[in-house]
Amino acid sequence: MFRSVRHMIYDLIEWRSQILSGTLPQDELKELKKKVTAKIDYGNRILDLDLVVRDEDGNILDPEQTSTISLFRAHEIASKQVEERLQEEKSQKQNIDINRQAKFAATPSFALFVNLKNVVCKIGEDAEVLMSLYDPLESKFISENYLVRWSSCGLPKDIDRLHNLRAVFTDLGSKDLKREKISFVCQIVRVGRMELRDNNTRKLTSGLRRPFGVAGSSLC
User: Fold this and answer.
1) Of 31, 116, 147, 206, which sits 20 to 30 A from 72 (CA to CA)?
2) How confident is the model at residue 188 (pLDDT cuts 50, 70, 90)?
C-alpha cells in the first residue's frame, strides 16, 4: 500500500509540474487534468477516504450551487469509474501473477542450502575450504565454489561469521535434476609454507597454496 501511494504521489508531482509550466496545449492540458483528478480519486478510494464529486472538467462540485439529484448522479458516475479502475488493476495483477507462474512452471529452478558447522581436519596452517557441486560422470563441476577461509586455530578467519557459514547453490534447473549423479565436493587448500616441517628460516616461505585434502558425498 505504501509503495502504491508513493508512486501515485510521484506521478502527481510530475503532472503538477507540467501543468504549472504553461507549455501544454489546451487539449493536452485538459486531458492531463482529468488524469490528475482520476488518480486522486483512485488514491482516495484505496485509502478508504471520502469520494470527491466533480464535474466533467474535474472541478469539485459546490453543494450550495448543485442540486441533490445532480450530486447523486455525479457521485454514481465517479464511483463507477473508480470501481472500473480497481477491477482493471486487479485484472492486470492477476494476469501478471499467471504469467509469472507459467514462466516458473516452464523453467523450474531449485536450490541447495548448505550450512557449514565445522571443519574437523588437522591442518596446522591457514586453509581455504571450497565447496561445490560436481558431476562424476561428466567429470566436471556444475557450480561455482563456496569459499570459507579457515585459520590455523580451527576457527573461521572472519570470526564474525562463526556459526553463520551458510550458502545457497541456486538456479539448479530440470537439466541438473536429470543428471544420473551429483556429488557435493569439499576441497581443502593449505595456505602457508611449502613444507609443514620446514624449520629452516632461510628457506621459510609463506602464502603458498598447496592442495591438502578432498572429500565428497553423493547427493543423488
Assistant:
1) 31
2) very high
